[in-house]
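Researcher: Checking consistency across runs. Here is Methylsterol monooxygenase 2-2 again:
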Amino acid sequence: MDSVIASAWKYLITHFSDFQLACIGSFLLHESVFFLSGLPFIYLERAGWLSKYKIQTKNNTAEAQEKCISRLLLYHFCVNLPVMLASYPVFSFMGMRSSLPLPSWKVVSTQIFFYFIIEDFIFYWGHRVLHTKWLYKHVHSVHHEYATPFGLNSEYAHPAEILFLGFATIVGPAITGPHLITLWLWMVVRVLETVEAHCGYHFPWSISNFLPLYGGADFHDYHHRLLYTKSGNYSSTFVYMDWIFGTDKGYRKLKAVKSIEDEIDAKQM
């Protein structure tokens, strides 16, 4: 398997420059993973499939979904792509490389674990600041236009927020100057995680059912349903920051009540 990956990577670095791979390649990878993982949830919602796993009964209109997609394309080409182009010199200066040999899985997994820790910490505080009155009204309210998340709206946000919270995702790699394949893997994992957190469905196979402290769709959906002053659940991937600072108390109480109700229903059956 390693030899296959190395051969494929050798093809890429012999046919494309570092700049092309790090900027254009990263952009194309992001767009592919984001839309391929997010679009199915639009069709699930429209068709009513797997509705028993849907967290909210309310559905988004086709017009609202189409607005989201058109704005996303605009923001991705006018904000995300320029940021990737502008950040290339920084990553290069910090030591990012694309040459062979590829890093070991131990190095890759250690770096990505570090990125999660950094991203969770910065995102929590940045997200919490965005829920202050002025910033919510003028910036973060754009993301909360969708009280019923559906996957793709995970990246639907004000351009200022894209830059502000996007910093949390890139600061870890910027510090360590990783191999480009590590950066790509981190990007894929983060995109899949944020799409899943906004998908609007809680399945029996959802990661949050098996991985401790992982937030997932049920945790983040609660955040979208409530008024900005009372929402809580500000964490990104793992929820330990909300637990430490007590900003998930409302969610935990709701879960406890629901658990009791489920037990009563089970006894009555």
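Researcher: Does this match what you'd expect to see?
Model: One thing to look at in this run: The mean pLDDT is 94.
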